[in-house]
Amino acid sequence: MPDSNLRSRQHRSHAVRRNGSLQSCEPCRKSKLRCDHERPVCGRCLTKNMVSGCFYHPAPMTKKVTGGSTRSARGSRGRNSQLIASSSTTGAGGGSALPRQNTTLESASASPGYLGSTSYSAILAEHRPEFSLNVDNSSMPTTLSQSMEPERLQTGVRLLKLLQNLTICDSLIRRYYTRVLVAVIPEIVTMSIVRSARNVLGALDFTEDVEDQLQNTVRKVSQNTSRPLSTYRSMTVEQYCAAFTGQNLRWEAIGIIFATAGMSLSSTPESDPDLYQVAADTSARERLRAQLVEASSTCLTFSDQASSVNELLGFCQYSSFVLLTHVYGDSSYQAWRRLRELSATIYAAGLHQDSPMDDNCPFFLRQWRRSCFAAAFSADKNQATFVGRPPSINYRYSTLTPPLDISERSIVHGGDELNAAIARLDRFGWSAEDEVDRASVLRLRFILAVYRERALEIALGTGEHSDTVQNSDEIIKQARESWAVCPVRLRYDVSAEGTESGPLTKSFTLLHIYLDYLYTIFLLQRTVVKRVNTGHEALFDTSRTMLSNIIKGNADSDPAFDLSRHRAWVFLYYGLPSASVLILELLHQNQGIGTYTTALPRAEIIRNLSVFISCLSWVARPGHGNYHTCKEAERKLSHILDQVLDPQPIEDLAFHDATSGLYSLLDWYHPSNPNNWDFNSEYLPPQN
């Protein structure tokens, strides 16, 4: 039975023929039957259960000149669509019938993506049901003949060969989803891609020309990538996964394999037996990591050339961004640029807003798209804070609807299980379950990220025409209220009091979230101190809490899970600012210029600072992205602590402000430093 909601779809995305009438789908056009023009599946095809075959060709009457090695666009499409399916089932090299070097790719998507209420087409789109639009479509783009360049073709072949050889990716990905609570891409999506890719590559016939088969596969994957992902309300999870696997395999999907394996590699200990078989030493592991970084980036380059935006591309870009931070560091331009690309995808795909088009989207996909947005939004705020730059995704232009606190299992199963899970949500949207789930973690990270952006507006803004103290107090109050109503199972400050801390990955994840909450308060308090010169005591108390929890959490270890790269992030992102404020205040008190009205617990602070500085010396190993930053921070903080413990004559102007930012804080004693090392965390602009 056709879904009644499917009938109510708007016509604003419909293509118009040159004579002014709406375009028919291909099955109706070829059968010369009347089409109702519904997108993405017309009513006739829906009634006849022909959902998979219903599509709207961008240029249905366009043909190529026949003769020689060229073929009609329609014939080429038909043979191409059989490539992966036939090879998967029979193992025969059936791809030899495909055109070779002059194969035409599907044209890059002519759709500009999401268009908001101020766009050039907004007014006509809003009133389209009121009239029959009759425009001259002769100037609109049609399918272009795009011969695949030999270099790009060979690069694609090399990617497939690399994927075929790196079977370690499969075990790394399984390990990632077994142990990691911050995974963003649904496990069923990633594992469907992995199985499909293995089936495609495993079906190659090695008695035939393998190179020719690989080239045909590259062409097919590139054609798939240029087509938009179509969804409809009655779509199942299996049908959704089939849209980018099997004969529909896309470069974004292959990129997810490489990027997820790379992220997992970063937390896999060197003693892991599977990893040891393929990379027995450090240099071999670094080569493997470099291959995964390069491969995932190349897949994204292919996807960019196709110009088709969707949540799958967003998932791939997010995973690639995280991997780049592991390799190049969190302050690297490579990671910053990839995050900007992710932000562009979020906006172009319309993932930043809930729109009427979501009525044509199945429930599970709505939640996964919200997860993609939530992950990108949170990463954007963390990165903006770390480097002291404005964020790219603005909460004022977004529908801030967090993903529901429902497990992936319940979302995938749907039906009664999903309804029961929804019924167990409290009035704040949290599940009554005791288990710490990936959905719960992502939901809380997103909620805290909204407060972080509001804090960044104050900390990074000019401060003009605003009451800094009042606005900061209001944000802190609301953040504390949100923290108070979140489930106890997600609160490190409460769960840490119990005897059962759980797996290291759980406790470390909860610590990370708790520090994120505290750091938003820290940023606001520091802004008030800098601009108004009040509130020092609150700032120092928050700094002490952050530093002591970092030291406490660092004592946990798990030989089966390598958290060194993640710990380095925590030490630099949360630990260094709080330690910096405290160590400078101790130094100021030595000089008699301290600002704290009550005596600081000097022994406790010095003890924690000593442990923190010691950890900076080993938390990141050579080859890690944040290694040099940790070593430089250790060197400079050690120098300051020496001044605290053994005061020496110094210039007073070097300590003009205990909260003047990490750049001046870490560079005070060596103004002529030839390396000009810049931590780039001056959150506040100069004030007149």
TrEMBL record:
Segments for region (Disordered): 1-23, 58-101
Segments forming domain Zn(2)-C6 fungal-type: 24-56
Main location: nucleus
Subcellular location: Nucleus
Compositionally skewed regions (Basic residues) per UniProt: 8-17
A Pfam family of this chain: Zn_clus
Molecular function as annotated in GO: DNA binding; DNA-binding transcription factor activity, RNA polymerase II-specific; zinc ion binding
InterPro entries noted in UniProt: Sec_Metabolite_Reg, Zn2-C6_fun-type_DNA-bd_sf, Zn2Cys6_DnaBD
Biased composition (Low complexity): 67-90
Keywords on record: DNA-binding, Nucleus, Transcription, Transcription regulation
GO biological process: positive regulation of metabolic process
A cellular component annotation (GO) from this entry: nucleus
Matching PANTHER family: UNCHARACTERIZED TRANSCRIPTIONAL REGULATORY PROTEIN, ZN(II)2CYS6 TRANSCRIPTION FACTOR (EUROFUNG)
Record protein name field: Zn(2)-C6 fungal-type domain-containing protein
